[in-house]
Structures are given as structure tokens and as C-alpha cells.
Amino acid sequence: MLHSEIERSLHRVRIINLCFYCCFVKNTISALHWSPKVKDLVVSGDDKGIVICYWYNRNDSQQFFTESRAIFCLTCSPHHDNLVAIGYKDGIIVIIDISRRGEVVHRLRGHDDEIHSLVWCPVLGEEAFCSRQGEPQEEDATTGDTTEEAAVTKGYCIASGSKDQTIRVWSCTRSRVLTTLKLPFLKRRGGGVEPAVRERLWLTVHWPKKTQIFSSCFGGELLQWDLTQSKKQKWELLGSSGEGQNHSRIVFNLCSSCIEGRELLLSISMDRDVKCWDLASLNCCWTMPSLGGFVYSLAFSPVDTGCIAVGVGDSMLRVWNTMSIHNHYDVKTFWQGIKSKVTALSWHPTKEGCLAFGTDDGKVGIYDTFSSKPPQISSTYHKKTVYALAWGPPVPPLSFGGDGDRPSVTLYSCAGEGIVFQHNPWKLNGEAHDINKLIRETNSIKHKLPARTEIRWKPDGSVLAIGNEDGSIEIFQAPDLKLLCTILQHHKLINAIRWHHDHGTQPELSYMIASGSNNAIIYVHNIKTVIENCPEGPVTITEPFRTLAGHTAKITSLSWSPHHDGRLVSVCYDGTAQVWDVLKEEPLHNYRGHRGRLLCVQWSPVEADSIYTGADDFCVHKWMAVKQKHSRPPPGKKSIELEKKRSSQPKPKAKKKKKLPGKWPSSQDVSDSVNGGESVRESFLEENGLSDQEGEKEQQEQEPAERTSTEAHKDPPAHPPPASVPDLAKHSTVLKIPPVRKDQIKPGSDSSMKRKKPRSILPLSISMDHRSKEELHQDCLKLATCLHSRDLKEDLPSCSGDHVHLGLFMDRPALYTLMETEGKSHLENGHPELFQQLMIWKGDLKGVLQSAAERGELTDQLVAFSPMAGYQAWAWTVEAFAKQLCFQEQYVKAASHLLSLHKVYEAVELLKSHSCFREAIAIAKARLRPEDPVLKDLYTSWAAVLEKDGHYSMAAKCYLGATCAYDAAKVLAKKGDTASLKAAAELALIAGEKDLSITFSLRCAQELLSSRNWVGAQDVLQQHESLLGHRLVFCLNELLHKQLNARNPVEPRSPSAPCYHSWEVKPDCSFIEMVTHVWQSIFAVDTAEQAQCMYEQLRIIEYPPSTINTHPKQLLFHISHDLTLALLSHQTGSWEEAIKATLGAVSRSYEAGNFTLLQEICSRLFPRGCDHLRDKLDSTNSQTMATYTSLEAFVAYGQLYDLWWNQSKDSLDWEQQRPASEACCHEQGALDPSNTEEVCSLEKISTEAESCSRERGSVVASESGLAIGPSLLTKRQRKLRGCRVLLSEEYAALQSTHRDISRVQQTVAAMISQHQKNNLQESATNKLESESDLEKLPSPPSQSQNEQVKEPVSLPHLMNQLTEANRQLAQFPDSIKASPFPDVLECCLVVLHMGVQCPMDLASELQEQSLRLLRKYGQLYIHKEVCRRFLHDPPA
Fold it and tell me: What confidence tens digit (pLDDT) does each residue in 350-381 have?
């Protein structure tokens, strides 16, 4: 049984191939079981008391409402098909019969609390329990509701486990308790059970043997109960011989198995461990841990080498000893005090077993992994998800005091709200401190600090690196956290920061810091100079030491190799892990084993080449870097596929807020503008559109755990952080400025009179000049005072402040103050362009350009002004503006600006990278040399994209532009329609690709032929002289189709009429003469040399043999090809080849089962028979004569059926006058055997045929009015004598041998198939079958006269038969075996039937020959049934 709490949380059924089952379920499923007796029956129960039975093989279901109670568990009986036991939440157990609409068979009362588990006794009967009737029993549980129909002769028992801490064994036939087992209070748990422990009880019961029951106990222990023990203690604890063998949490499932003679028990628990127990020793054999959520964090212990901590989304953390020798999965699970996803981990640098963890709900705690005590939890909670933890030296105020009064290291935590707390590990119940306060005080920062996203101490504890939401990284010096430098490299949120280890061979490498963000690029900076020189003021770093590009999605984690210098591994949302040689900027190894997005990585401190990665596929992988076959990440496709896994429910769009001027743009604005609204940092609850399976059940609405975007301060900073020119171009903030609409205003219109007054560039000054007269007078006095004081060279303390607007009438500093005030006002009101104009008036053009580039507010006007600052400033501005336009997805405009810098290749590459191939080709074509390889690369790249999207015509143009005509023709023909194939053929012909053009022309002609357009097919083929032979084939096919369609429409339901040529042919000529005339008049094939050339051209083409599934059009075309070869051979005088080709055409129709076509071909080619061909053949050539004999037989075969189906009028009249009782039951067509109850002997059939023939002959002789004319009779008899070739004993023997071989092969195949079925059944049921059953199987109907008795045939006997048949087959000449021939026995049956029907036509020798062949070779049961059907017609 599945754990009901898990089932209730799933709210759906998870069964393979039972997707239709979910539609029957309305309520929350609380119990589910697959019937062990009925293999396709699944039974479920819900919290409303509804039971649903689903038979998935027939897609049928039934629903029962037995009790109005919440179902907690249910189980199907292993002994009875229709019995199901159900346990309810209130302790009631009922057994229902689903065959009687869920009728209650038994109702068992005795438990006081919810039923956790039900299990049936593995065997029927109650003898083992009935002998102990004298023991004290519980009260009778019968309530009077038991039905008498439920009594089973042998009886059956069932055991139940309940939350009331008891296991009860019930007698279902007597509806009472046989045994009650009380869970013990184990001494190893302290002599009692705490109330909290009792609440966590889940009592699982497993009954593998009749006298042995296994059950779970409090907190994860397992017990073995011996039902035969009469003493008080009937249980024995599993795993009591050693510590740590039992589960740490409650057990849900138990099952047993026997492998190689060992009885094993498997258990699964809430601790997500799977344990295997040896029932002989009751010890745990092995433990296999599993994960129930995303793997968010990995951390190796710096003290206990090889011990890695795993933070998982199932509200548990694991500690895995990877160095364990005896158990590869030596994992300890910790869950107490967590209750949320474990999103961050960090080991104490010196204290063994001290592990700090952070959770999704903002909790920070410390575990002692060597103790079973609950963790210490910090009293200070974060408001959002904890993303980073780090141990480092204490900073004020915890750094105050002596060494013994403060901890050596403290714990730092960074969470989604952007705050870093410092926790005192000695007093976690005390208040944690926000280090931003210290940073403000130390560095005298007045503006609002950015939101923190990552924190990492240098290994020696001297420097702290903090990553921010805006992509910046700040480096602080301990202990006062003095700001040393700011790294402005990333444009998005910082996800990972890692310092290089300090034990490498190159000490300077310890100053390297690697960082990854949401922009898929890893930057490595070397800040040795900054740390060693300790500058007076903070510096800004904008150039990286190394750039590692290759990932295609956000970087989630990094890890330096402790065994190498400059070796880094990164993980990414593209689903791969990448190992880099940082010093060479070279990708080394790429791991692609995960099936989801990677979230964390750790390089093993023990094995130099081992790396551990965790992902959202619920897995931790250990892999070897040197064994990876890939060296770099995939080119972006995988990340797109992973993004498709996100939730289909669209996220609510946030309302766009008006961005106030003067404020630094937040990272939310950055991500919204660059990534189309991507969150700052996705919630751990909703990553990949999935949620962890063990998330909180009570949480109905998932709150996003994103890191809060930094809100801009109301007052803009007086001095923005300095940035160098190259860095400004990389800033990711984009502010899209809507274009100014320039509407044309007609003269004299009303709109021209109401034109809006332009906004003043000095609104503050203007507004101050529109005050009252008194205030204006005061301004005049104040201005005079200031000017007079300036003349007297006195200080001007009062000439600022409220009188800034007077700066327009004072000196330059006062004017600058006015401009600065006016500029702030413009920025606050959302008019940065006016602020920029003021700065330009001020003369600070470079400052304006720099500020606009930082804010992403460069405009065409600023770019036009930039030459005033010099060429370098202009070039930098244009490049920065191009990058800004790229962020704004204005790639064409950005490329145009790059062209102004003569960066043609950069402009082309920019357009190409954003799929603007048309514009890129235009630029490259206009600005680059024609032979430049970039142009060809553009064409081929665009063609590949177009071809993938199905735009084949455009792709062909691109290939032509790249001078790849061959590829152009091939891609043009990909669609496969006639127009495309025709265009592709012409294109290939123009380009000189003659062979390719011929191929496409033939394909196009075939397509036109399938649509019955012979005119179009000939037009396509006539472009190539080398296809003249194929044109002849199409010509013959058209003429043949035209004749067949005229006599009997081949395709009466065709939507379009056939398109024939209007060739002139003689009306009375034969088919061969007609074809020859058209060939000579239309195609000018009138010489033997031309015919020989055409024959050689077509002879090399071979078509596969026809079958009954061959399409009629295809069959007719293949026959036309063979007939074309025959006629060409006829023109060249090669009669042997002509006979061979003609036989091929006739045999194709015979093999395809198209008898009508066979007759039509024979009648048109040989209207008077083929006797005239014998004289033209070499009679000494056995192969040629065998071929001729076969052809003659097929011609006679057609004539035979024609005589049978088209009898003379007199014969028909005579047949109509026969009594109804003498009517012969026959069918026109193939001889279809019918099922008969008895099969008469061949002698009886022949006797009846002979007697019937004599009687019919006498009747005909006596009827003078019905006599047939002598000429007609002679003609029919002559034709029948021509059919003697069909009654060939040699071919009858050959065909009989083939039938024997086929029969033996079929029998052997049936034996093998049955043997395989027996083996499968034996493995499934564990029952051995006798050797005779495996070796002997029923044979086909016996050849003896008593066919009702089917004697078994042995495999050696079959092999002897097969050997004998092969020996006989080898004695036949190869010429006969290579030539097809009609079925001789079939022809014998037709001849005999015609003799019974019209005895006057049949010569006695033909009848005797047919009877003799049937007696000799017609011993198969199938021919006897056919004989009985067509010949058994006794006279009345």
C-alpha cells in the first residue's frame, strides 16, 4: 500500500499507462492497490468513501459508495477475484465483493483509530489459529451485517495495523479477532513513547508466511512477529545487532523476496532510504538512499575529508561519507527542525561535524552531525529564501572583546531580501546583525546599498566578496569591511562567487575570484594589486582577468579544483557542467549526464578527477572529468528545451512603473528589459515549472522566493560610482525611449493652432519668476546684495539655498548650481533629455555621454553631438550606442552604427547572430569582396535555417547565392511534389548536374504517372536524350492503360480523367503492332541498333518481385517495363530475351494475384497462342525451353479459366435446365477452400466425378434440342488440348516438394513459438512442464484418412522430413526450379470441374491425367477440401 499522506498530496494516480484512469477520479485519492489476482484491475479509494475499480485492458470502471467515511487503506485479495478489504479512518474494516456492486461481505470492528495497513494471509485456511481457541480473545466484532454468501469453504484471514498501536489478525469467515499484537515500548527509546512520537506512528504490516508477520514500529524500527509463540513477547527487533541499521523515520512500505535462496525484506521510509534485510539474521544488508526534491546545495567538509553534505528540497539534508569502504552509499539523513527546502549549506572550517544550513523559509541553523540532537536554530529569520552561507572572521560588533569572549569564526547568511546577517554560533538565540550597517559607517555611504545575492570569504579570512543584484561585486577588507574595489563586469544578478584556493604552486592565483551570473558568462578577476596596495579610496574594476564563455543560460554554481592550479568547474541552467582551464581560457570537459538544470557543484577534495553535481532532476552525480567525450557546452538548443519544461500557466505580468529620473536602475528593470521579464532569481519553489514532491501540503499559494529588486532612493546620488569608458558600454540597463511621432500638420488646420508649447529647459527658474510682486522684489534685493557683496569680495553665505534660481543673473558657479538643480528636477520628472541638454550647455559632453551610457539612455542626438568631444569619444559613443540598441533588439540600427566605424565584419556577425540574415547579406554583399568566405557562410547558414523551417524555395535561393547549385536542387526537391521536382530537375540541368537532373526527372515523371498524366510525364522526360528508353516504357504503359481502361475501367473512382496523348494508331492492329508504330512515328525508334541501345539502357533496372500488396499502378508500370524489354528484344531478334521478359511480365501479375490483368496481357500479346515462338528458339537450350514452357503454361492458364468462365450459350442453356438439386456450387476466381465438417477421400471424389460425367453425357445425348454444334465443340476441345501443358507431372512434383518443405518449416516455427510461450509461462508461474510437452506439439491435420485424430509429431521426425524434401528438391533441374509455373493441382481441379459441368468438352485423357495427379500429389488437407467443394456433386 502507498502511504496515504503522500497519495493525498499527489491528488492523482501515478500508474504507468493508466492515463485514462485519472478521468474517473473526482476526489482526493487516499488509497490505491493493484490486484495480485486480476492483473488488469486497479482499485482506489478517496477521502469521501468512494471506491473505484478500473480494468485498464478493457478501459472499464465501476464505482461503489460503501461507507460514508474517509478511506485510509485498501487491499485486493490474492485468493479471490472480487474481494477487497477497506480500512477507514475511524477504525472500521469492511470486505466488499465488487462482483455484487460493492456489497459488504464482512464488517470488522475492534480498532479505535485509523487503519494504516491491511494485508491478507498468504495462504487459505485458519487451522493455525483455530487450535488456539482457548487463549483469551478480543470481543466479537460481528455486528450482524455479515452476509451468509461470504462464507468460504476453507476460510481466509486478514491482518490490520492501526494508529491505536495494535496489529489484529482477523478470521473473515467468523468475523472475529484471532490474535491481537500490541506494539512494544522499546527500551532503546528511553522506556516510553513521547506524545510527538506517537503522532508520527505509521503501522505498516507485511505477511510473507502464514505464521510470520513483519510490522513497523515507533520512529522507524521493524519488528518480526511469530504467531506460533505463546509467550508474552512474540516480537523480535530487526537490526538490533548494530547501531544505525534501522530507519530514522516512520516506515511506509514492506515487501519480501527470495533471491538465490536468501529470504530478503525490503523497506522504504519517510527518510527516503530503501533498506534490504536478511530475514535469516534480521540484519540490514544494504541501504540505498534516495532524494525527494531538487538538489540545491553541496558542500564538502574541510575537516572530515570526503564527507559531503547534500541540501535537498524534500526538507531533509544528507551527509554522505564518500570514503566509506563497506557501504558506497553511507548516508545519514537529518530532518528534525528543518521543515522546508534546504537551499544552502556550509561546514565549519575547523570544527568537525558542525554544519550550517539555510532553508527556503528563511531559517538558519547549525547541525551537529555526530549527534542525534535537533539543530540549533537562529532566532533571526530572513524574510525570504536563504541562498548563501559562509563562515568567516567576526566583524563588529562581534569582533569586539578578547579571544575567549568571542567566537573565532561567525556565520554569515544571505537571503532573497538582499540582506546579509552575521550570526553568533555561540548564541544563535541572540539577535543577528546586518552587516550593511557596518559597511555604511566604515565607508560613509549615504545612498541605498544594492541588494545582496552572494557572499564569500577569502580562505584566509582577510577579504570578503559580496555579489549584488545589479551585477556588481564589492570587495571588503576585514574586520571593518572597508570597501577596496567594485567589480562592474556582470550585467545581471550574481549567483556564484568563488575564491581560488591558497595552497597552489602559484601563490598569486589565490587572489583570483571567479563569478557567475544570469548572463551565462563567467568572469575571473585577479585583484592581487588591489588587496596588497590597499588604495585610499575604492577603485572600480571593469576588465576581467579571464572570460569563460560557452554556457547558454544562467550560471548557478562554481567550484575550483583543490588539486590543480586555475582549474574551475561551472554548472548552468543549460543542463551541463563545464570544466575550464582558466589560465588558458579553454574549455576542457563538458558533462551532460543530468536530465535537468544543474544547481550546485563541488570538486572532490579526495579524488583529483571526480566532481559532484546536483540538479533539479532529484539526483547527485559523481563523474570523472577526463572521461567526458564533450569538451564544451552544447550550442544553446538544450537550454531552449529545458525552458519548455516551465509551467504552462503564464505568470502574471507586473504593471510597468514609471521610472523616476535620477535613480539608478534596479536589476529588476535590467532583467525585464534584457530577458523579457525574467525574474531576478527564480523561486526555489517553482523552478522549472515544478515543485518538490515533499513540499508543504498546507501551502496553497506558492510565494515566489525571488531576491527583491533594489528600489531606487528618492534622492539621486550626488556622485555616481565612477566607471571607465569600456565598462559603460557593457552596462546592461536599458531604458527604451519611445520615438517622437512626427505627424504632418496641414496648414490652416485647427491642430496647427493648438500645437503644444515646448517644455522649458529651465522650468524652476521660470516658475520662480511667476510669483507675487513682493517675492520678486525680494529677489531683486537679494540679487543686488549678492552682487554688491561680490564686488566687495565678501563671502556669499546667503546667496544659495532658496535663491538658487537667481544663479542665472550671478556668476558661473551660481549658474552651475542652477543647472544642477534644474537637471535633478528633470530627472525626477522623467525628462532625461532635458537634463542632457543642460549638461551639454554646461560643456560636460563627456559626462553626459558617460551617464547616458550607464543608464542606457543614449540617443541619436547624443551620438550626433559626440564628435564635439573628439574622435575617440565619438567612436566609443557609437559603439556603446550599438550595444544599447542590441539590448533594445534594434539590431539593424546597431549594425548601421557599427558600419559608421567601418566595422563591417562586426555588423555582419551581429545581424547573423540574431537571425537577420537578409540584412547581413545585403551589407556583406555591398561592403565585402565577392570572394570573401563570410558571404558564403551567411548564405549557407540562412539556407540551413530556412531548410529546417520548411522554406525550401528560399533555401534554394541561398544555396544558389553561395554557388551550391547541387544543394539548391536537392533542397528544392525536398517537398516532393511534381512542381518542385520539375523545377529541381531543370535547375540541376542548368547547373550542369546532369545525373541529379535525371534522377529528379524520373521522380517527377513517376509522380505524374500516379496522377495519370502521361503527357506531363513525357514532357519532363524529353529534356534528357538519355531517358528515351524510359519514355518508351511510359509510352507502352499509356497504351496498355488506355486499352485496359477502355474495356474495363481500371480506376472508376478516380477524381480526374486520365491525360492521354492523341497518337494516331491503326484500329485493327494488334497491341504489339500498335506500340511498335507509335515508337517509330513518335520516338523515331525504328532500327535494331536503337532498340538494342534502349534495351541495354533499361536492362540494368531491376524491380522487386510483386506481391499481393503491390499497388496496381506500380504493378502495371513494372509490367510495362518488362513488356518494353520484350518488344525491344523482339525488334532486335533476341527471342530468348523476349520470352524471358514476357514471362516476367506475366508472372508478376500472377504473383500479385491479379488474374484479370494476366488474362488481358496474354490475350493481347498472344491472341492465337504462343506456338509460333517455339520454332524461333533453340531447342537444345534447356533454360530457354523451360522459360518457354512456363510462358506457354501461363497462356494456357488464362485460356483454361476463360473456357471455364465463358461457356457456350448451349452449354449454359443445358446447365440452366438441370434440376436445382444438381446445380454445381462454384465460384469464379481463386479456389477458396471452405470449412467442412468431413472430408471425403480422393477416390470417392474421382468416382463421383467419373459417374457424374457419364450420367451427364447420356443426358446430353438424349436431348437433341440441346446439342452443341460440332464446330464450337471442336474449337473448345482444341483449346482444352492446349491446356495439357498445365498438367505437368514434373512441375506437380516440384510444387509438392515445395509444399512439403513449407509445411515442415511452418510446423517447426510453431513449435519454437510455443516453446517460447511455455518458457515465459514457466518463469511466471514457477511450474516446470514435462519434457514431452516441450518437444512435441500438435501437427497440422494428418494426411491419414482419419483426420480427426491429431497425432503429435516430434522434432526429429520433422527434421527427417525436411531433409528428405530438400534431397528431392535437389534432384530437379535448375532450369525448372528457376521458372515459375501455375499451380498444377489447381489446374487439375478446374479441369475436373469443367468435366463435371460440361462433360462433352473434356477429353478423357485430360480427366484421367488430372485425377492421377490429384491422387499422387493432392494428399494435403487443403486440396481435399477444395476437391470436395468443387467436385462433390452426386447425381439426383
Answer: 999 999 999 999 999 999 998 888 899 999 99
Strand partners, 365: 357, 377
Task: Locate 1056 and state its grid cell.
Answer: 480526374
For CA atoms 93, 98, 104, 106, the dihedral sign is: negative
How many alpha carbons fall within 13 Å on the CB side of residue 629? 1
Does residue 1409 have a pLDDT over 80? yes
Tell me, what's the pLDDT at 1207? 58
CA-based R_g, the chain, Å:
48
Per the DSSP assignment, residues forming a β-bridge with 356 are 346, 366
Query: Tens digit of pLDDT for each residue in 1354-1370?
Result: 778 888 888 888 888 88
Cβ atoms of 442 and 480 within 8 Å: the answer is yes
The residues, any chain, with a CB within 8 Å of residue 998's CB and separated by 6 or more, are: 985, 1024, 1026, 1027
Distance CA 598, CA 1066 (A): 81
pTM value is: 0.46
CA dihedral 798, 804, 806, 810 (to 10 degrees): 70
For the record, the C-alpha cell of 853 comes out as 551610457
Name the helix (H) or strand (E) containing 406.
Answer: none
Amino acid at 738: P
140-197 confidence digits (pLDDT tens): 444 434 344 444 456 788 999 998 889 999 888 788 888 888 888 775 443 344 444 4
Cα separation, 9 vs 767, in Å, equals 65
Q: How far apart are alpha carbons 548 and 582 in whole angstroms?
A: 7
The number of helix segments (H) and strand segments (E) in the chain equals 42, 50
Place of cell 496641414: 746
- Evaluate whether 893 touches 878 at the Cβ level (below 8 Å): no
Please check whether residue 74 is in contact with residue 51, taking contact to mean a CB–CB distance below 8 angstroms: yes
Question: Are the C-beta atoms of 485 and 534 separated by less than 8 Å?
Answer: no
Q: Are 855 and 717 in contact (CB under 8 A)?
A: no
Strand arrangement, sheet containing 452-457: 452-457, 463-468, 472-477, 482-488, 539-541
Distance, in Å, from the CA atom of 1213 to the CA atom of 310, rounded to the nearest integer, reads: 98
Cβ neighbours around 474 below 10 Å, total = 21
Residue 261 zone, left/alpha/beta (φ > 0; ψ -120 to 50; rest): left
**Which position has the higher pLDDT, 327 or 850?**
850
**Torsions phi, psi for 416 (to 5 deg):** -65, -20
Strands 330-334 and 317-321: antiparallel
Q: What is the DSSP string of 962-1023?
A: TT-HHHHHHHHGGG-SHHHHHHHHHHHHHTT-HHHHHHHHHHHHHHHHHTTBHHHHHHHHTT
Using CA atoms, how far apart are residues 1279 and 1261, in angstroms rounded to an integer? Answer: 22
Reading the block at residue 1225, the C-alpha cell is: 456450387
pLDDT band at 1172 (very low <50, low <70, confident <90, very high): confident
Pairing status of strand 521-526 against strand 494-499: unpaired
